[in-house]
Write a structure and sequence with these properties.
The complex is a heterodimer of chains A (315) and B (535). Helix content of chain A is 78%, strand content 0%. Chain A has 315 residues and is mostly helical. Chain A folds into 2 domains: 75 residues, no CATH class; 166 residues, MetI-like (MetI-like fold). The chains are: A mainly alpha (315), B alpha+beta (535). Chain B: GO terms for molecular function: peptide transmembrane transporter activity.
């Protein structure tokens, strides 16, 4: 990495701080605006008010809101996200236990989506306006408009029950098991991600195919496959990188739903259960982690872009 | 009476133990008396061998994870039912949930005045770490359960002190007679923990690294994914558990559960939607179990708000709602019409008529009420429950017939609970289930104004009922006590602080090779009785 990129990275990482600070303030107060008492939820409907009161005090939720916020901030600057008030474990531990699962799913989905999108986009571009191209276009729109939990259930029915290829749910213990278990969840999210990738990629390939340098390459007698890979794809794929970077937040959001459908023990599942139980510290921690992930991935995208296309300069 | 019942059970138990001891543990004959009794709907096919086989891991799907293995912390049913398979208590619930059996205590005597309980303990119970279970552990655990760290302290109101009175003996002294005591001692929060471990390692450590003496011990806990339990080889019931282990797998999605059963990725799934049971029953490799559960589904009516302070309106609404129609449409017929505030626990009043659907009577009551021309009402329901939303739509139709315009307000569960407990609602869909077989818990919590919840946050206040509920806790004459609870239920039913709906059972689907799986009335299950046959 040259000096320019390094400076850019440092500058953006520094600017992360105020953004995360803002997010932490908003989440802290927003989640407390939703009615619902963590102590009451923890104890269930059976407990009497005195026990609820005592647990509220133990959770530190009887303090004025501003005090709670200051304690939270103080801890946060020391790298401590506090303890879950429901599970009574450090938030960082809880997130750490599950971060790899969600990252695995997100990366798996990204790779799978690229593997699906690129050939389809190329095919559609080469056979522009053919029956096949139109077929893919129709399929894209269908995939995009079906809700992911529905696709998930259909895939389960097809690939786990009818044809017993993949397990219905879970995560597994080894790397190969993860690959098998997360295939359907990743494919489910890909269903709505690939259409977003295919369409611009196809358009880009069509434009490039008629560009002069492609004509020139062909004229030099380079094999068509070589032309496609070295000249066309290399130039077309740049846009895809940006789209992937922009969509990472959306990808994380998609994983929240899909993790629930497939019982994958990732961050999304933790987020849903902590919202339902009003586990404030965990929600705060998760939102921060999600926000940081989105920002970091966008930063990496920018840097990757300059490597793929040296003409682009970072400012 | 209660005392004699205890002694009778003890003598039966002693005989059982003698028989069990004379047979070597490896030789499990089909006649082992400890073998679970066959249950309705769970009969094995004739050609199958009924001798329990050892080995195998039971994969058991449930809707969510638990939060702690410390018996005095969690309040969710799933956590309670998990803890009960990992710890022992002085006494325990019988397999179907209709009585109390010896646990760590082999027998007990109750003093004439009902204020002293002396428990004799088994001397062969060991914790999962190999330490023997002592009377000091019992005292420590129960003092802890009623102390400030406990989320269950409120359920032990009458205990004055717990004393170690012998090498294998513990005595519980009460302030006043308290008949629900034995029931309470069978509760998960009364589980016996090793004093030394909790004191040395602290309660946070213990919540994640439990040490009990029950049939199963924790092997690993992958939060949000599964709880893996392994067999306790030193369990005091020799020969049990049959299984090598249990995996409680977290599967929140109904469809995923059904697919996993069909793909044989599970041996048991709980909370299978009623609408899928018929389809699953047709599958030759699956078995459907609908187990009665001490749960009451009801609509509390906030009687501190007009016009709900009018008894006639509350009664009219009760008559106008056709509960059987809701059961048939929403629970697919699985469920029973409720007439009492009590779920089906001890002294459940089965003679109450309640409010059978009667539109004429409902209309007449409305005409005599403070709002003869009807009014607009709001029913708040939990957005996560299909059953709630389907039910609400039917109720909207039914209440329209008596001039009540029902507006349905769907909110997220945490919000609904908060509105309920802060009494900022008109009507709300909810339920409760009893943790003990004694009617006292639900009476104090759901009906008696002094129980701390304002009669389940309805604001219903009846001094006579309150007084009787407190007296009933102390009444040592079983016949009189039963009469009191019958009367309490009658009064409450007549005053109609709830719209009484139904008792929802628990639904389970198992593979056909799962044997001995029985669910008690309280919803708990003894997994040490479960065994798997080779398929």
């Amino acid at each position: 990495m040259d000096i320019g990129r390094l400076q850019y990275a440092v500058k953006h990482i520094v600017s992360l701080v105020p953004v995360l600070l803002g997010i932490s303030i908003i989440t802290f107060f927003m989640i407390r605006l939703i009615p619902g008492d963590p102590a009451q939820i923890l104890l269930g409907p059976r407990a009497n008010p005195e026990t609820v009161q005592r647990v509220t005090e133990r959770m530190g939720l009887d303090q004025p809101l501003l005090n709670q916020y200051l304690i939270y901030m103080q801890n946060l600057f020391q790298g401590n996200m506090g303890d879950s008030i429901i599970i009574q474990q450090p938030v960082l531990t809880l997130i750490g236990e599950r971060l790899d699962v969600t990252l695995f799913l997100v990366i798996y989905t990204t790779i799978l989506s690229v593997l699906i999108s690129v050939p389809i986009a190329m095919w559609s571009a080469v056979r522009k306006d053919s029956l096949l191209d139109n077929g893919f276009r129709a399929a894209s729109i269908t995939g995009l408009s079906m809700p992911s939990f529905w696709i998930g259930i259909l895939l389960m029915l097809l690939l786990s029950i009818k044809v017993k290829l993949f397990p219905v749910s879970g995560y597994g213990n080894t790397f190969t098991e993860h690959l098998r278990h997360l295939f359907l969840p990743a494919l489910t999210i890909s269903f709505s991600l690939t259409p977003v990738l295919i369409r611009p990629l196809r358009t880009k390939i069509i434009t490039i195919l008629s560009a002069e340098f492609v004509e020139a390459a062909r004229a030099r007698g380079i094999k068509e496959s070589q032309v496609m890979i070295k000249h066309v794809l290399r130039n077309a794929v740049l846009g895809t990188v940006t789209i992937l970077g922009v969509n990472v937040g959306w990808l994380l959001g998609g994983s929240v739903i899909v993790e629930t459908v497939f019982s994958v023990p990732g961050l999304g599942q933790l987020l849903i259960s902590s919202i339902l139980t009003r586990d404030y510290p965990v929600i705060q921690g998760l939102v921060l982690v999600f926000a940081a992930l989105v920002i970091v991935v966008n930063l990496l995208t920018d840097i990757l872009y300059t490597i793929l296309d040296p003409r682009v300069k970072l400012e | 009476m209660k005392k004699r019942l205890g002694l009778a059970l003890v003598s039966v138990w002693t005989m059982i133990s003698l028989v069990a001891c004379s047979a070597s543990p490896a030789n499990q004959t089909a006649q082992t008396p400890q073998q679970p009794a066959p249950q309705p709907g769970a009969e094995q096919t004739a050609e199958q061998d009924n001798t329990p086989q050892t080995g195998g891991v039971l994969r058991f799907a449930r809707n969510h994870d638990i939060t702690s293995f410390d018996p005095i912390i969690p309040a969710t049913n799933l956590a309670i039912w998990t803890v009960l398979n990992m710890y022992d208590q002085l006494v325990r619930l019988s397999p179907n949930g209709d009585g109390i059996e010896p646990g760590v205590a082999t027998d007990w005597t109750i003093s004439e005045d009902g204020k002293t309980y002396v428990f004799n303990l088994r001397d062969d119970v060991k914790f999962h770490n190999g330490m023997p279970l002592t009377p000091e552990d019992v005292k420590y655990s129960l003092d802890r359960a009623r102390g400030g760290d406990s989320n269950w302290d409120w359920i032990y109101p009458a205990i004055k002190s717990i004393d170690v009175t012998g090498e294998h003996q513990v005595t519980i002294n009460l302030e006043a007679p308290y008949l629900p005591l034995l029931s309470t001692l069978a509760l998960s929060s009364s589980s016996i923990v090793p004093k030394q471990v909790v004191e040395e390692k602290g309660k946070e450590f213990f919540a994640n690294n439990p040490v009990g003496s029950g049939p199963f011990q924790l092997e690993s806990w992958q939060r949000g994914q599964k709880i893996v339990l392994k067999k306790n080889p030193d369990y005091w019931q020799k020969g049990k558990p049959y299984l090598d282990g249990v995996e409680f797998v977290q599967v929140p999605e109904d469809t995923a559960k059904i697919f996993m059963l069909q793909a044989k990725e599970l041996e048991i799934s709980s909370n299978v939607p009623f609408s899928s049971l018929q389809q699953l029953e047709a599958d030759p490799s699956l078995h459907v179990l609908v187990a009665p559960f001490a749960r009451l589904d009801m609509i509390p009516i906030n009687s501190t708000v007009e016009p709900y302070n009018d008894l006639k309106i509350r009664q009219a609404m009760n008559y106008a709602i056709n509960k059987q129609e809701i059961i048939d449409a929403v629970l697919m017929g699985h469920g029973e019409v409720a007439t009492s505030y009590l779920p089906k626990v001890l002294y459940y009043n089965d003679q109450l008529e309640g409010y059978p659907y009667n539109l004429e009577k409902a209309k007449q009551l409305m005409a005599e009420s403070s709002r003869p021309d009807g009014f607009k009402a709001t029913l708040t329901i939990n957005s996560g429950s299909d059953i709630n939303s389907q039910m609400a739509v039917i109720m909207k139709e039914q209440l329209k017939a008596i001039g009540i315009e029902l507006e349905i307000q769907q909110l997220e569960p945490g919000v609904v609970d908060e509105m309920h407990s802060s009494m900022k609602y008109e009507m709300i869909t909810t339920y409760y289930s009893s943790d003990i077989i004694d009617p006292d818990e639900i009476t104090m919590f759901g009906a008696a104004p002094s129980g701390g919840t304002n009669a389940y946050y309805t604001g219903y206040n009846n001094e006579a009922l309150d007084k009787m509920a407190l007296q009933a806790q102390q009444e040592q004459d079983e016949t009189k006590r039963k009469e009191m609870y019958y009367e309490l239920q009658r009064i409450f039913s007549e005053d109609a602080p709830f719209i009484f709906l139904f008792h929802t059972p628990n639904s389970y689907v198992t593979q056909k090779n799962v044997h001995g799986f029985q669910v008690s009335n309280m919803g708990s299950y003894r997994l040490e009785d479960v065994w798997l046959s080779k398929q």
